[in-house]
């Protein structure tokens, strides 16, 4: 099976990891990214999307089985070609944010729509397939905290380190609330509490920060299925989070971890987690959203839309890995 990927961010780790896992299952990919440069200070404009449309239309005629549009703003480009079926994956901000009308208008014309959580499906208001982004359990796994702290250069021996794995400039992540909550907890504990912001590092290094920290704090205004929470689970890092996206589902049965609604609940939850000083049992919960399991589910979507089944040995291998994991 050959798939044309249309995306606004060709370097998104959760997308590239999904592609890698699907390639192991016999799918091949070509990727088209929206025209124009984008960085922290520059966003693509409507012209960039419009001038990508002819390229998508031309490329779609080159023997693909389907077109997979990642992010709501790429859906009109994928639908502009009429030769191949379209799978649309929505990422979260394209359901909750200002581009949501584009996602809602495009979804009925796609052959299948994939969202990350039940909450996203309810907001979108239509039938679709729920597949959270998967986490690589080989890349994200528990490691000794002192070793991880050396790797990330956290030399402070005393105190607690609370991880905020986003740029403070990303307004949807609500850094001011994380600062506010951490400051209160810092005043309540004798040992200092440090809020560690981490962004722009290589994705392979993120697991070191997860293992070095004492807790992850998520204060986002909205989410789909936050990768940071699933990565923290895979590393047994306790999570204190607001109830957004699929966070409550992911943290069900995970201890210590807390889902909160108010600042007071976030403070109490973070205080409890730090005082206990224990790692969580999150890795077992993370197995439910391993990259292997989620890739198998996406492959089923591809087969359904393209009307063909791929014979692969990957499924048997995945089953053996999961059985071995349960025996660890």
Care to describe what's here?
With 328 residues, the chain is an alpha/beta fold. The protein is 42% helix and 15% strand. The chain contains 16 helices and eleven strands. It has a six-stranded parallel beta sheet, sandwiched between helices. A five-stranded parallel beta sheet has the order 8-7-9-10-11, with helices on both faces. Strand 7, helix 9 and strand 8 (193-197) form a beta-alpha-beta unit. Helix 1 (13-23) crosses helix 15 (291-306), helix 8 crosses helix 10 and helix 9 (175-188) packs across helix 13 (263-276).
Q: How far is the N terminus from the C terminus?
A: 35 Å
Major beta sheet, strand line-up: 2-1-3-4-5-6
Main β-sheet description = 6 strands, parallel
Order of helices and strands: EHEHHEHEHHEHEHEHEHEHEHEHHHH
The strand count comes to 11
Cα gyration radius (Å) = 20 Å
Structural class: alpha/beta
Strand content: 5-15%
Mean pLDDT: 92
Q: What characteristic shape results from the CA principal axes?
A: elongated
Residue stretches low in confidence (pLDDT < 50, at least 5 long) are none
- Number of helices in the DSSP assignment: 16
Helix content: 40-55%
What attributes does this structure have?
single chain, 328 residues, alpha/beta, six-stranded parallel beta sheet, five-stranded parallel beta sheet, 16 helices
């Amino acid at each position: 099976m050959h798939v044309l990927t249309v995306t606004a961010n060709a370097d998104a780790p959760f997308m590239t990891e999904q592609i890698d896992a699907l390639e192991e299952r016999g799918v091949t990919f070509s990727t088209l990214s929206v025209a124009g440069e984008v960085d922290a200070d520059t966003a693509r404009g409507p012209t960039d999307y419009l001038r990508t449309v002819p390229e998508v239309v031309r490329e779609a005629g080159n023997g693909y089985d389907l077109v997979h549009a990642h992010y709501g703003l790429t859906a009109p480009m994928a639908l502009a070609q009429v030769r191949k079926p379209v799978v649309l994956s929505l990422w979260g901000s394209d359901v909750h944010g200002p581009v949501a009308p584009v996602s809602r208008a495009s979804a009925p014309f796609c052959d299948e729509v994939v969202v990350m959580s039940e909450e996203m499906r309810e907001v979108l208001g239509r039938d679709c397939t729920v597949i959270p982004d998967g986490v690589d359990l080989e890349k994200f796994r528990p490691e000794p905290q002192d070793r991880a702290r050396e790797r990330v250069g956290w030399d402070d021996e005393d105190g607690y380190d609370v991880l905020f794995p986003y740029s403070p400039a990303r307004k949807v992540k609500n850094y001011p609330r994380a600062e506010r909550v951490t400051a209160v907890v810092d005043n309540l504990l004798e040992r200092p509490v440090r809020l560690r912001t981490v962004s722009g590092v290589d994705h392979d290094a993120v697991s070191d920060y997860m293992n070095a920290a004492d807790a992850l704090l998520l204060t986002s205004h909205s989410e789909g299925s936050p990768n940071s929470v699933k990565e923290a689970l895979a590393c047994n890092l306790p999570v204190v989070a607001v109830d957004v996206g699929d966070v409550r589902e992911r943290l069900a049965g995970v201890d210590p971890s807390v889902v909160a609604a108010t600042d007071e609940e976030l403070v109490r939850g973070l205080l409890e987690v730090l005082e206990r000083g224990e790692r969580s049992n999150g890795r077992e919960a993370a197995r439910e959203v391993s990259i292997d399991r989620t890739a198998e589910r996406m492959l089923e979507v591809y087969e359904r839309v393209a009307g063909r089944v791929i014979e692969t040995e990957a499924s048997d291998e995945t089953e053996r890995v999961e059985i071995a994991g349960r025996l660890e």
